[in-house]
Fold each of these.
Amino acid sequence: MSVVAIEAQDWKIGTGQPLCVIAGLNVLEDVDLAVTVGRELKSVCADLGLPYIFKASFDKANRSSITSYRGPGFEKGLPMLAEIKQELGVGVCTDLHEPYQADAVAKVADIVQIPAFLCRQTDLVVATAKAAGESGSAIQVKKAQFLAPWDTKNIVSKIGEVLPGDRVILCERGSSFGYNNLVVDMLGIQQMQALGCPVTIDATHAVQLPGADPRTAGASTGGRREGVGTIAKSAIAAGADGVFLEFHTDPDKALCDGPSCLPLDAARPLLNELKAIHEIVN
């Protein structure tokens, strides 16, 4: 398995590297909240010796309802991420949804993320790969809920036509299981690593209950926050190279996916456990 390195941030993920952390907010609400969350996560990761990248989306384009909060959007959100990046002094990860966004996003984001629902969109994948190649960014691809782990080889192959394979991270985030439910096949982690890519676990989205939030009668996605730690620890025990987590100072008031995100004070004990498991496995 290769090691993906982001030279500008002295951040590496893969064989022989420490547990890597990509964590922050589900979606940008305001700069102050993002900085508060990012500063605490940076501090925790520094204390534990874990490489850290801040994550937040500028747009959540796949919300269940047209009235749901999506974020500040492309034009306002990217400058916010650039400000947060400078304020915190860390790398950032964010996702994109349209090929025209790739160049601008890659100039700000150290990790450009392709959302699960869009991972087979060739134009988006190729545009992102080209932009990442020019900017020096890495790409994280979320495995779609409808894809088998081994089928991600086709996505890696598409990217490889434009960008070297040592810049690609794959992310497990659960597979559709009947209606309104997801499950994680831990065997899939090693199967994706066999493609030559480091693999992260998105433990936050893996506990979603798509379209099943009782608070909105199904107009938004529900979640099982209490299961985030279980999924994360299981995946690290299964060999995952990094963890993807979302936090909020008040999860029940989060504007997007509150039922799936963790309170900020849960970061230190959880990451401490994950570090210990990663060290035992490796």
Note: The chain has one domain: 40-281.
Amino acid sequence: MTAPASGAEPPGAADEHSASQAVQCMFDGIAPRYDLLNHVLSANVDRIWWRRTASTFAPILKKPQAVVLDVCCGTGDMTLALLRHRPAGAEPVLALDFAHAMLERAKEKFSSPECSGKAVVAIEADALHMPIPDGSIDLITTAFGFRNLANYEAGLKEMHRVMLPGAELGILDFNEPGGLFGKVYNFYFRHILPRIGKALSGSSAPYAYLPHSVHRFPKPEEMLAMMCSCGFIQATWTPYTFGIAGLYRAVKA
């Protein structure tokens, strides 16, 4: 019997396998309008979050021989933010995602003049089963994708597997802020955002799923404890924009 999902739980998903398939289909379906929707719904604040995260890891990114992996890369915006800190001729950044349509859009960006002299290798694969050797990665980032994994603990363990000792991990994802601002934002997030998403994309399901997935995602203290239980040390969380999002950082022991 398949175990129930211990991560993302899209509507109708009964176990980890069906949850993974549902997420894959969902993102393939919204790929053509994904970037537009992200920028409109976040008022372009998402660009600031990607750049801030990339700047955090600039000391590693500036090393030409560092091997960098962007997991759940989507349409490649986090990958592009990382590339801005890579010197020409550096080792290629690995960009991994299992949604074919999303990765195809990312490949278009990776071949643009903006990436001239900076290489990216796109990998179509599941983040829970990455075709990457043990202990080979210096830095892993993932932006707004980890939350959609069917098993959070398995995702952390798989990342830990491919990382070198002393390698760094950065997980940028949404959070439910507290206080009065949190109440106002959560009302927008749960009631207004799905309507805007439906109007722009023609589909309500992904934007009804979004607030549900954020609510289901572990709170910062729970996430930090999980990271430590999976073999990471120096785990921290830095809130972005009043706690709407935040960056989890850790090091492989």
Note: Residues 179-201 form the longest helix (23 residues).
Amino acid sequence: MPVRTSDSSHGTPAKGVGLGLALGSALAFGGSGVAAKPLIEAGLDPLHVVWLRVAGAALVMLPLAVRHRALPRRRPALLAGFGLLAVAGVQACYFAAISRIPVGVALLVEYLAPALVLGWVRFVQRRPVTRAAALGVVLAAGGLACVVEVWSGLSFDALGLALALGAACCQVGYFVLSDQGGDAGAEAPDPLGVIAYGLLVGAAVLTVVARPWTMDWSVLAGTADMNGTAVPALALLAWIVLIATVLAYVTGVVSVRRLSPQVAGVVACLEAVIAAVLAWVLLGEHLSAPQLVGGAVVLLGAFIAQSSTPAKGSPEPVAAGGPERELSTPGAAA
């Protein structure tokens, strides 16, 4: 893929609706971490929270899977890649990361994905990249150094940072797979069908890995602490499943059909800002001034890398955007 880009025939009202939906999608994705972290701190294992999220969303999206039941025969590798990397891998690494480091830091590390994709294209595939894209990589790396405060000897938990980087790598792996998954002239699969089956594949994989039968289900019957406020655990889970997963993916898919990939990429950058602000307000996770500046530089680098992407099939040097937006939806992320 990319699966679909915007159509120039869309008028300003349609683009306005698309922008609103994209903002809603970024808000929904950005709120996943602040809802998940209290559940983890209440006693649920991060993998169990991921399994609840993915399995619940897969159940909600099951009717779409039935509707696109021919898709597994047509694109088995694509569905496996989406399920293993963009669903199971990204979510497991991200949720494990936020159990050890602040939500905003974890998501900003994950935003190294566009830079890592460019590294794959340049040094593994040996294809040229634009100067603007290279600048984006440098900015993202420099901004990340400020976010993790390298001058303090990496004051954050090293394993947490490694897990956040693992989430970024999973996004890169899925982008590489999807970039090679569509043959020229082949009909692009409906992204909603890809999401539905990806969630089913991810749920199956996570069931084996997370072993939900060992979960302390009693935690869901109680409350979780959100910066001093007791919130029903089931309410947090409902937000993660229905808002931060199902609604976030669907609004992302619908919005990208009304926007160019470049605009969608810019809006995607707001996800990290939203996550950091929500974590600040709801969880009391304050970032220092250098970290805020570094976060802004990371997002600027990601924006430059994404906005430098030439049209598919263009002879221009390659510069790749975020994988979840290329599929027509985030991070996946998160």
Note: The beta strands are 223-226, 229-232.
